[in-house]
Amino acid sequence: MTALVERVVWVSLATSLLLLPLLGLSGAIRRRYRAGSCYLLWLVLALRLLIPLPVPVPVGTALSQVVPAPAAEETLVPLPGISGPASVRGPQAGGAGGAAELTEALSWLWAAGAVLFLGVEGGGYLRARRKILEGSQARAGDQAALEALGGTVPVLRAGVDTPMTLGLLRPVIVLPPEVPEADLPLILRHELCHIRRRDLWYKGLMLLANAVHWFNPLVWRMAGQAGRDLELYCDEAVVEGQDSGFRRRYGQVLLQASSGGVTAALTTRLGGTEMKGRIMNLFLQKKKGTALVAAVVCAALLCGGAVAWGPSSAAGAQDLPQEAAARLQQVTESVALNEEGSQVRFTLPELEEGEDWRVQISGRYVAADQVSMSVHLDTPGVWEPGRSYEIPIKPRLRQAEGEGYYTQLTLHISLVRGEDSWDGEADLLALASQPQSAGSGWLWPVEGYHTLSALFGGRVHPVTGQRTDHTGIDIPAPEGTPVLAAASGTVEAAGWDGEGGLGDRVILAHGGGWTTTYGQLSQITAVTGETVEQGEVIGYVGATGRATGPHLHLELAENGVPTDPAAAYPGLELSVTGR
Fold first, then answer.
1. Three-state SS string across 312-328, please?
2. Residue 3 pLDDT class (50, 70, 90 cuts)
3. Looking at domain 321-433, which CATH architecture does it have?
4. CA-CA distance, 224 to 184, in Å (whole number)?
5. Phi and psi at residue 445, in whole multiples of 5°?
6. pLDDT digits over 444-490, tens only?
7. In the CATH scheme, what is the code of domain 451-576?
8. Does the pLDDT value for residue 275 go beyond 90?
């Protein structure tokens, strides 16, 4: 648990670098941009705060098991792209037992705080829900008014001072005993907006982020600000496209219900100046804030990259001897897999007197019957410097249909010198998923369409009429045709290309320096940061950039240098329009 707490603290600190200016400028941001942009900002940061947490496997029983693997003679094929060391920890002093005990105690304190937070908040919610629903009753007129707006959830009257929505899975709208008949459609419209947008799930996400980072006051402020912006966002949705008369009537509903400390049409109590700001917001014209959200997403990803190695590399990194780092890098650079993914090979460099190597391969595996288990592969008890090792992996990393699969498998290396040690690691799953070279195993991304309208290289642009370098190939296909990932990889970018002319596009990183770009998409289904498999639909053909018709613009690059994608498909018959 100590490693988890270290990661949580580092994530909290890194994300605070974004929270601090955003919270400080929240007033200016709300005045300039629509509430929906602020809503998305807090959503992005809440996800960033929760991403480092391990995701439990929802099926099966967790076991601890050593996976035996008989040795096998196989030809080893090194794959590109392993960088090392992936993580480095500075000297681990053997006499630092007191520090270790303190870290362990702080870890339990964090866990107790998170459990207490969820217990207090969850218990309070359940008690309030039970009290509200016990004395509630339904009125036929309320239900008919909601159905006229297209809603189907139950509407109840209870002893509450403000309308609200309860329930994540089975939401219920609860109204005060007395609501003016003229106000009822506006109130129901507001609550129905919450339900359709799954706003209670949004609040639940904020609650979870707050629980995990209960020690960070900026996260508490973020959760509160997110609740206020959620209400502003809902207000904007209610009055969207309506005239000033409608907006005034809706503002009067909010103002009248807020008198006496009661907030109407809201699930969060916001009175005084906050209510004044909400009413003013109904009549302001604001920008969408797409660029702001994109900037925060990019910054959150950058923080994520820094945090990814934070707990491991920050501790004592300044004290890491250069020769130790060099030898750890030699090991990680030597890691290779055979073609079947059933054996890993690496070489341990020579050591000086008093030094030793320690190696472990561990991870998590889900069997064919969906039983999840932690695994530790069989390895020699003693490691000899200057020797190459071949460790069988069973089951192999490249699985056949119907077999189990690894969700994590990492080679951990430690260089031990007396009471100090330094660690490195290599992700074997990432190694197994990397393409060996261009032209080897690439999947054609637009199934059934093999005619090109533009080749790689110089050309006269059909829209601008300018002589330009065409860094990809164009594949015409009907709008809405699925676009498939040419190889497994990580979504490096997904969205608008700005002034690049590709419109909506997706960029995949496949390891070894290889990337593919898919432009002119009418719709994007991939999400930045996620891992996609070869053949997975990442978008649909369109013409959202500078284009004369629907087509896929496909690019292939190695270490940022564009190469002809058509050359990656030597066995595929391609034709060119008009040639």
1. HHCCCHHHCCHHHHHHH
2. low
3. Sandwich (2.60)
4. 27
5. -80, -15
6. 999 989 999 888 876 566 655 566 778 899 999 999 999 999 988 89
7. 2.70.70.10
8. no
φ/ψ region of 555 (left if φ > 0, alpha if ψ in -120 to 50, else beta) reads beta
Contact 215, 110 (CB under 8 A): yes
Tokens of 422: 């330094």
Q: Kindly list the domain boundaries of the chain, sorted by start residue.
A: 321-433, 451-576
Instruction: Check if the beta carbon of residue 453 is closer than 8 Å to that of residue 476.
Output: yes
Q: Across the chain, which distance is largest between two alpha carbons, in Å?
A: 87
SS3 162: coil
- pLDDT of res. 552: 96
Range with the lowest mean pLDDT among 31-40, 147-156, 313-322?
313-322
- Distance set, CA 255 to CA 55, 86, 177, 181, 229 (Å): 44, 57, 18, 16, 18
Which whole number is the average pLDDT over 157-177? 85
Beta pairing, strands 63-65 & 482-484: unpaired
- Enumerate the β-bridge partners of residue 531: 490
DSSP H or E run through 488: none
Of residues 520, 513, 539, 541, the one with CA closest to residue 528: 539
Q: What is the pLDDT of residues 6-53, one digit of tens each?
A: 778 888 888 888 888 888 887 888 778 887 888 888 888 888 888 764
